[in-house]
Amino acid sequence: MRYGTGMAASPRFNPLLRAGKPQGMASSAVGTAAPVFRPGLEGVPATQSAICDIDGLQGKLTYRGYEVGSLATNSSFLETAYLLIWGELPTAAELQAFESEVQMHRRVSFRIRDMMKSFPSGGHPMDALQASAASLGLFYSRRALDSPDYIAAAVVRLIAKIPTMVAAFQLIRKGQDPIQPRDDLAYAANFLYMLTEREPDPLAARIFDACLILHAEHSLNASTFSARVTASTLTDPYAVVASAVGTLAGPLHGGANEDVLEMLEQIGTEDQVEPWLDRAIAQKQKIMGFGHREYKVKDPRAVILQKLAEELFDQFGHDPLYDLARKLESVAAERLGPKGIYPNVDFYSGLVYRKLGIPEDLFTPLFAIARTAGWLAHWKEQLGANRIYRPTQIYTGHAERQWVPQGAR
Predict the structure, then answer these.
(1) Which of 70, 229, 269, 403 is 20 to 30 A from 4, comparing alpha carbons?
(2) Of residues 236, 299, 319, 346, which has the active-site annotation?
(3) In the annotation, is 314 catalytic?
């Protein structure tokens, strides 16, 4: 058996044989009542999914029924990615085969590296990633969406190559050649190595791997919705991921963790937290890293990330911005807690990445590395019972008008 487009398959890595086709998505009857406009589609079901569940009142997040904290503690990112995409935790043999395939396909074509060298050094890494992810479709253009081998091959390529492209652009924009992946390093450790050419501390690698798990999936957020809409056209998976990357780049979605650090630096000292927050509330200013459309309590991922940050600080030294963050969370709980506004995943993730020595404008590309697993899970699920997305609109423009010649306007 082969994967399609020339990719040799491991005899053990054939998850479709065990997991079966993805669950179908039942269609609902269209009502006859007048349509109701809901800005941002808030509360409007757009699909059915078996991938992820969020309990915003209890602060619970599960992947395929497994609580995210349990996965972050006990699993690895690649094992979690397998779970999300194929629906079940892999056996030891299946995981080993999947890890081997990902390891084998980490490298990217020299043509992609040459293309990246032509990007402006001042460009944002998310823009570079979107272009690079889309370019993969040129190299693997065969579109066989009914082929399990093609689907498995695309999953491996994207999960394997996205981190390599992120690390490559980071070095290229500094005038350096990209560092080749190391086959003896696990997924998270290899990415950190490609950024620095230094083998990371085992604790740093483990914590970064846990961060990838926490960011891997989160239901039908903006980028995932974008991925499913693009997937519904039956385009190639590389275009699906590229469209999701473009959506994730916005500051209201994936870019907020950069803004959290900037906000904390603007506050400056702990004695300025209360007056700063009071001014921000009075001016109706968005408090970066606070509030989530799904959660009315503290984001469970923020709880875990705070603990991960403390582990890093214990071993590698304290970050004074963490004290500011804790003070801001405490004061905000009094002012904003009654409104259901608490820290979200972005509030502490930037502090973790900062301690790992990662540049701030790479924070969102790290999000994309992790969320590629969730995007691919939704891509595969969408293919299982596809219908192209075509929502309606409520027209608010002019009634029918008559043409007026230019001289009479």
Answers:
(1) 229
(2) 346
(3) no
